[in-house]
Amino acid sequence: MSKPRIVLITGVSRGLGRAMAFKFAEFGHVVVGCGRSRKAIAGLQKELGAPHRFSVVDVTRDTQVSDWASEVIEAVGPPNLLLNNAALINPVSPLWEMDCKDFDEVIDVNIKGVANVIRHFVRAMVERKSGVIVNFSSGWGRETDPGVAPYCATKWAIEGLTRSLAQDLPKGMVAIPLNPGIIDTDMLRSCFGEEAGNYPAAEVWADTAVPFLLGLKASDSGKPLTVPI
Ligand SMILES: NC(=O)c1ccc[n+]([C@@H]2O[C@H](COP(=O)([O-])OP(=O)(O)OC[C@H]3O[C@@H](n4cnc5c(N)ncnc54)[C@H](OP(=O)(O)O)[C@@H]3O)[C@@H](O)[C@H]2O)c1
Fold it and tell me: What is the mean pLDDT of residues 153-175?
């Protein structure tokens, strides 16, 4: 087992975030996570208990993220591994038929939410001159399909944002855009329907993804990576 780390995960209430929280905790790491669902966050806190910490935070709300970061850094210090996992996908539709609200929500969570988390947590990581930042991208951050233009726009943005961030960071720190693969979660079901069942469950994916994340090193910084599932 590797030395215990502080692992910060956004979007822990469901899907990949929740599966990673359980796997990191099983490996002896301290998990700090957030999501919007009060019920899911309370349930997770009950299931995993202290020293893990789960909070109701909407990453699109800069003040909520700022307050959360102050509280976390005061309690456990800056994260060693920061996973910007929270995201939304648009209802599948041609771009010109997309509601303004649906478009804006995807941009707000998938790009501005990631920037909010980076703004409030990464300064303390830079002061300590260590840490790994992983921004969840997608196959749709490297290629495109019809019906998912807003989501593609955000994940292509994450690729650029993260590679530029890697160049901002001091030597030894790491920033990576990560394609997690294709996994059966609520998000996948919303665009693949029943066909999502042909892909691995989040818990199975986490068995490979978590050791992969723990193995990221300085020479990986700035490289677009994919979980080898
Ligand atoms: N599943 C796949 O096949 C796949 C493929 C490629 C990339 N990805 C990427 O992998 C990541 C995880 O995806 P997933 O499939 O696990 O999605 P998911 O099942 O839909 O879960 C998304 C998580 O993000 C949280 N979230 C959404 N908006 C939020 C906000 N404003 N503030 C805080 N938390 C928020 C949700 O919790 P609340 O609703 O409680 O806030 C939920 O916990 C995403 O970045 C996604 O784009 C997934």
Answer: 98
- The answer to whether residues 201 and 18 touch, using CB atoms and an 8 Å cutoff, is no
Residue 103 lies in a domain: yes
- Active site (annotated) includes residue 199: no
Q: Does the C-beta of 116 come closer than 6 Å to ligand 1? A: no
pLDDT at 165: 98
Structure confidence by residue, pLDDT tens digits, 96-119? 999 999 999 999 999 999 999 999
Omega prior to 51 cis, within 30 of 0: yes
Q: Which amino acid is at 185?
A: T
Q: Is the pLDDT of residue 146 over 90?
A: yes
Instruction: Determine the pLDDT at residue 3.
Output: 84
Q: Kindly state whether residue 41 falls inside one of the protein's structural domains.
A: yes
C-alpha dihedral sign at 143, 145, 151, 153: positive
Range of the domain at 33: 6-223
How many domains does one find in the chain? 1
228 found inside a domain = no
Q: What is the CATH number of the domain that holds 213?
A: 3.40.50.720
Q: Residue 203 has which token pair?
A: 């818990």
- pTM for this structure? 0.98
**In which band, very low, low, confident or very high, does the pLDDT at 229 lie, cut at 50, 70 and 90?**
confident
Does the CB atom of residue 17 touch ligand 1 within 6 A? yes
Expressed in angstroms and rounded, the spacing between residue 209 Cα and the centre of ligand 1 is 15
Residue 109: burial class (beta carbons within 10 Å; 0-12, 13-18, 19+): buried
Q: Look at residue 168 and tell me if it is in a domain.
A: yes
Q: Which pair of tokens denotes residue 87?
A: 């995201």
